[in-house]
Design a protein that fits this description.
The chain is an alpha/beta fold. It is 38% helix and 13% strand. The chain has 2 domains: 59-159, no CATH class; 173-408, Aldolase class I (TIM Barrel, Alpha-Beta Barrel). It contains 15 helices and 12 strands. A 10-stranded mixed sheet has the order 4-3-2-6-7-8-9-10-11-12. It has a two-stranded antiparallel sheet with strand order 1-5. α14 (357-366) links the parallel β11 (336-341) and β12.
């Protein structure tokens, strides 16, 4: 069969195009049709028993806005379903209960995580979410509980969390970032970004979280910077903000223009514990400027403006030996530390996908240090390289952000 494909590819490209079109227009729809029938039958009989748990609640409570108007129900690094809609042609309401997201929810309720989730998904590592742990004494929790326990995939509840990762403007060009911030030259805001913000304003009277993250720097982006500066936090008191930032632009003057907002969580991406490594990984960064920004965050946390301040390291070849120093730096400032693995085709840096056994063994040796661990340290998706005796004493900071306390009572760590 392979030799036939090769022959056609080399000798009759027109036939190859015709076969591909036939597969796309005829075969694929037939496969999807029968797959949907099978899914719906299984879901019908499973739903009659009711649901007491679900592998993950994220598609029942969150939307993530990506580049080019795409919308996902989860971080695209964690899911095989990269898009459930597009803001260029749809609204939030249409996407929230649209066909793609309803199918996603069905598959999760049936436990078919292998079809929708990546194996390294950080949400799945938490373990199943038992519905008895949902806080039904809050309106949001009660509505979510009623939807999930009854197996609804067309939800009555509204999204509780919106992630804005749809614009790649940044002031840095980090070695592990696949987005090179091409829009940064003129900082013109794409139409789909403007449309998204306008649509989001319909939810400002509800209890929601706006998570400003990914694909750029929150204060380098004109849209999110102006959102924070102009947001009426008194009128829209139910809205809170969580942010991921490289921290460099959080200088005292800038902080004065945005501190009126309701912040709960900030994650500062630093990726190094020394000036030399920082310069190598976070290209365009300034270590001294970063240290000044950390003082701003430290003071803000002490004043109660942030319930949690994390500094983050994306673990790679250039920095994994600095993990102990990184934890010390966080503790010296009263911050938590969070570690996530590098992802993507960065062969010189990605020790996790390059089968570099020597570096992996060195990483395990670094992580065997018992002084690293405590409630202030979250190893997240590198926990598989951490000795199991330390798992129970590690923090779960991302988990508490994904599932806020007003919504879910987190289970005991195992």
């Amino acid at each position: 069969m392979n030799s036939l494909k090769t022959y056609i590819r080399n000798n009759d490209p027109e036939l190859l195009r015709s076969l591909r079109n036939f597969k796309k227009k005829i075969i694929n729809p037939i496969v999807v049709f029968f797959s949907d029938i099978n899914l719906n039958i299984r879901f019908f009989f499973r739903g009659r028993k009711g649901f007491s748990s679900v592998p993950c609640l994220v598609p029942f409570m969150r939307l993530e806005f990506q580049k080019f108007g795409n919308v996902s129900a989860c971080c695209t690094a964690f899911t095989k379903v990269k898009s459930v809609g597009n803001m260029k042609s749809q609204t939030i309401e249409q996407i929230w209960n649209g066909k793609k997201l309803r199918r996603f929810r069905k598959q999760l309720l049936l436990g078919q995580t292998c079809k929708v989730c990546m194996p390294n998904c950080g949400y799945l590592k938490i373990g199943p979410i038992f519905l008895k742990d949902i806080c039904t004494d809050t309106p949001e929790g009660e509505s979510l509980y009623n939807d999930v326990s009854h197996g609804r995939v067309k939800l009555n509840s509204h999204p509780l969390r919106f992630n804005l990762a749809n614009f790649t403007v940044c002031n840095l060009t980090c070695v592990m970032c696949q987005s090179r911030a091409v829009e940064a030259q003129n900082n013109s805001i794409p139409e789909h970004v403007t449309k998204t913000l306008k649509n989001l304003s319909n939810y400002f009277d509800k209890k929601i979280t706006l998570y400003l993250s990914g694909n750029g720097e929150v204060l380098a982006r004109k849209d999110t910077r102006e959102l924070l500066q102009n947001f009426d936090s008194k009128k829209n008191s139910k809205v809170d903000f969580q942010i991921i930032t490289n921290g460099l632009l959080f200088q005292p003057r800038m902080w004065e223009t945005i501190k009126h907002n309701n912040f709960t969580y900030v994650n500062i991406s630093i990726d190094a514990a020394t000036k030399e490594t920082y310069k190598k990984v976070r290209r365009g960064g300034n270590w001294e400027q970063l240290m000044k920004a950390l003082e701003v965050f430290k003071k803000a946390r002490e004043e109660g403006k942030f319930s949690s301040v994390n500094i983050n390291m994306t673990v790679m070849k250039s920095n994994f030996k600095e993990i102990p120093q990184f934890v010390e730096m966080a503790r010296a400032n009263g911050f938590n530390s969070l570690f996530t693995r590098i992802r993507g085709p960065f062969e010189d840096e990605n020790i996790f996908e390059s089968n570099n056994e020597k570096d992996i063994q060195e990483l395990k040796k670094v992580l065997s240090n018992p002084n690293l661990y405590g409630e202030d340290v979250d190893m997240n998706d590198i926990r598989d390289y951490v000795p199991k005796e330390f798992h129970k004493i590690m923090g779960n900071h991302l988990t508490s952000i994904w599932y806020p306390s007003f919504l879910l009572k987190m289970p005991e760590k195992g």
